[in-house]
Design goal:
Length: 296
């Protein structure tokens, strides 16, 4: 993007960011360095430390002393890392920002980095497409000393940790929803498409995920919970089966897909109550069947 276009975006557009950080001392400098190097910096960035006991707060305060748009907001809770706590922290961060004037609001995980033109390019996508309500970069996971694009990246879906919303869209869905098994990012995407907005992961706009993949046992448990989340949000059983079948050939992704399928089947057999409306379920299943039948 040329300097004239960058200056136009800087003058006409403002965005704010929120980050939930619990004991992220090992990673928090990744987004801190990336955001402070942006061609177009945010109007304000609230890092919510919800009971961190490591050096997370000290690191953020060191940056906030140098960059006026960075603010540390402490929450007193102390807990294990979980989906509900992250949603609570992000929504608490938004309460600290909503009195400001801005056009876009983004959630940024505490273990993400990107190039200096990341938000410049992302804002350019929004300006080029007035129907775009939610967008973000494509995730590249760390493998040793290199990053590789995540196999499961999809153009119609944006990872929770890099979601940027038009403000009117984020307000329309009431921010992130606290769900029993997580997936607030997916819920937000579907909720926006129900309202006629587009959701897009921007190809070749990379976001680097620094946290290691983790131990197999933890991944299996996470995948099992994802199956519960799929059921809770109304995923069609045929779509769940097709998703598992597509991933089985890919090593550990296949093993975790089986764990996800077990979680889904467990909830399905117990007929657990769903966390969303019947209209939400109908809309999601139509999207899924259209994809299965290559209609979308």
């Amino acid at each position: 993007m040329c300097s004239r276009e960058t200056d136009t975006l800087r003058r006409s557009t403002s965005y704010v960011l929120m980050t939930a950080a619990w004991n992220e001392g090992s990673f928090i400098e990744c987004p801190l360095r990336a955001v402070t190097a942006q061609n177009i910096p945010p109007r304000q960035w609230v890092v919510v430390s919800d009971g961190s006991t490591d050096d997370t707060d000290a690191i953020v305060e060191r940056y906030s002393a140098q960059y006026s748009y960075i603010r540390l907001y402490r929450m007193p809770q102390r807990h294990e890392r979980n989906f509900a706590a992250q949603v609570d922290a992000i929504n608490a961060g938004y309460q600290q920002l909503r009195h400001l004037e801005f056009d876009f609001v983004g959630n940024l995980d505490a273990d993400i980095s990107f190039q200096p033109d990341y938000f410049e390019r992302l804002l350019g996508e929004f300006h080029a497409n007035p129907s775009l309500g939610l967008a973000g970069g494509t995730i590249c996971d760390k493998h040793g000393t290199t990053f590789k694009e995540r196999r499961l990246n999809r153009e119609h879906s944006v990872m929770h940790g890099v979601q940027l919303f038009r403000r009117e869209c984020f307000d329309a869905i009431g921010g992130y929803t606290r769900l029993p098994y997580g997936s607030p990012d997916w819920h937000a995407e579907v909720s926006l498409r129900m309202r006629g907005w587009e959701v897009q992961s921007i190809r070749n706009l990379q976001a680097f995920h620094h946290r290691p993949t983790g131990q197999a046992g933890n991944l299996l448990w996470y995948s099992y919970r994802q199956g519960l989340a799929d059921y809770s949000l109304g995923t069609h059983p045929l779509f769940e089966l097709a998703k598992a079948a597509r991933r089985i050939p890919y090593g550990y992704w296949g093993l975790n897909s089986l764990a996800e399928l077990v979680g889904f089947a467990h909830a399905y057999c117990r007929r657990e109550p769903r966390a969303v409306s019947k209209d939400f379920v109908r809309f999601l299943r139509k999207e899924q069947m259209d994809r299965l039948l290559f209609r979308a």
